[in-house]
Protein: 3-phosphoshikimate 1-carboxyvinyltransferase
Amino acid sequence: MFNRICIIGVGLIGGSIARAARQQGLSNTIVGYGRQQDEQNLQTAKQLGVIDDYMLDLAEAVQGADCVVIATPVASIESIFVLLKPLWSDSAIYTDVGSTKGSVIAAAERVFGVVPDNLVPAHPIAGAEQSGVTASVNDLFLNKRLIITPVGNTKPEAVQKIQGFWERLGSLVSVMDVQHHDGVLAATSHLPHILAFALVDMLGHKDEQSEIFQYAAGGFKDFTRIASSDPTMWKDICAANKDEIIPLIEQLKGELDKIQRLLETNDTRQLFETFTYARNARQRFLDQFDNNINMSKSITFQVQPGGKLQGEARVPGDKSMSHRSIMLGSLAEGVTHVKGFLEAEDALATLQAFRDMGVEIEGPVNGELTIHGVGKHGLKAPTNDLYLGNSGTSMRLLSGLLAGQAFNSVLTGDKSLSGRPMKRVTEPLAAMGADIKTTEKGTAPLHITGRAGQLTGIDYAMPIASAQVKSCLLLAGMYAQGVTSVTEPAPTRDHTERMLSGFNYPVKQEGNKVSITAEGSLTATDIDVPSDISSAAFFLVGASIAPGSDLLLKHVGVNPTRIGVIDILRLMGANIEVLNERTVGGEPVADLHVVYSALKGIDIPEHLVPLAIDEFPVLFVAAACAEGQTRLTGAEELRVKESDRIQVMADGLQILGVDAQSTEDGMIIQGGSIGGGEVISHGDHRIAMSFSIAGLRANAPITIYDCENVNTSFPEFRDLAKRLGLDLVCREA
Ligand SMILES: O=C(O)C1=C[C@@H](OP(=O)(O)O)[C@@H](O)[C@H](O)C1
Ligand SMILES: C=C(OP(=O)(O)O)C(=O)O
Structure:
């Protein structure tokens, strides 16, 4: 990209630019310039291989450079411009990394009269408390934002080249105007630094200083981390941007005054609202931040072949029940305590949505939650879109619940969820009088106009066996005139019905038809969520296929509408014992003992399909290890889960050398041996975990790409799998 880059000031930022540019091969030569007193640092930079050479004479340093990067503190940039002026070359590009941009541009105007058209002001939003070249690293700018603030006469080619340069260093580049940059940075960077310095200054001067610091814990350390930053640099930044910072300090004083008043008047309600608003706003920031990072961060699992699963484990809480515990607990009168809640992204998305609608929910701490129910009509309008991540259950159930509220809402999700069919819920809801707009394709975002008091019950025969559709309509039915009935073509999970009864809300079950009305209210209760059989399934299959395995999975939910995986594995010859069966909070629970046993291929009975719907990815792995052919039919629903689970599994199994043929509604697999190879999970948690389990019977290593979404249902999977005997390592890139 460049022949010679000259970096003026080889500290943390300058050094990290040099390292990353070298790693990316962006320049033939990289030299550093500093003052006499910086020589030691420059020598270190050369010894570390950060720069090729250094000069203490600026004319020598910039000689032949086609890119000059000014990476000195903002206050010194004007004096650097003065030194550079007689050496300025029209054929080079000049850029800087100052944290304030108005001051840099003003300095250039003072020195040059007009800002040179080959000066591209830029600001990488990356840094650390440490300084000096020894703190520099290759990846300081990876996935970090960088803002370019050109002025009217800046050459577009120069802007483009600097933009390309920073993108190659891994930054996410935006171009904006100078004042906007300085305003945004004053709020998000300069003010927080001032606050951290001020707090430590205040506490440090108290007599009881040593005692205060002795008892200060993680919160203090987190909050004041940036007070360890370089005071020289920060006094310069704050002084350079004071016009933007001072009005913000005034606003902050107002906010602190407000909180003081709330405390003086014991207005804990208002205090809660302030804190909740702030917490939610921070969550939105974190989601955005994670989205940026996730643009290129990906998690890869590498599994070594062989091993066996042994020991005892309790897998995390049931996802379906965790969603419903939040929904019904929020709508109940009184306080609901939940134990065993699944602390994974999908269930947490539901939790966040209810917080966004004004419900006070404490926790989760070790799977325990306290939900302060607001009653059936107590939800509040969310101030923003409700973001439901990867979770189909959250979106479909909420669409029913929100259709009959007195406020409007918008439901959004990630890329996978935004591609999943929503007409299956919006069409019957429309027949009830709901007003929900989807995209033309019938997908999210869902724009819901609340039609409180205007929904009417329907008698709906579901064309597909879906617990999400059934639950959606039952939740809408709680707000509809008359009776809402849903008839299912085959039994599906009945957690909504059971939990409604647990909350004392009347639901009527007659054969395959369930009915509800608006008559009733929910009474708070305690919920004990058992382990998720869909998560246990990975280990049920793992132990069944790996010789020598002997595993006890404790406290697993064995609701008859969920145990298809046990029935199918047993038909294949698996050795699974259901022990110590009991009922906990209206749901059957048991310990599952599974011992290795040679499996044989079967034709999977279609009536078991809805009862094992989420377990097919891992059941395909069982089939690949079984003797003979396994055939699945009647499972077209698998094509519209987090990924097309038929195609993605068939593709992956074929890569591993398995004879797996996808069909429209299922798969035909000839059992045999599993080889090694590289497969992609397509961001689908169950695919990632299924191929990991395949490693137990593979004859070579398996690499599985794109596994970050394991966190949606089973964040502990990799640690637990390793503890039980799977040789899995996880790489983050
Ligand atoms: O109601 C639920 O909690 C679920 C129902 C099923 O979806 P469908 O209703 O689309 O079959 C299942 O796949 C999903 O993981 C959870
Ligand atoms: C299909 C699943 O979940 P959801 O529909 O809630 O995204 C699943 O967990 O396998």
The pocket of shikimate-3-phosphate (ligand 1) is lined by residues 320, 393, 466-468, 471, 493, 613-614, 637 (CB under 6 Å).
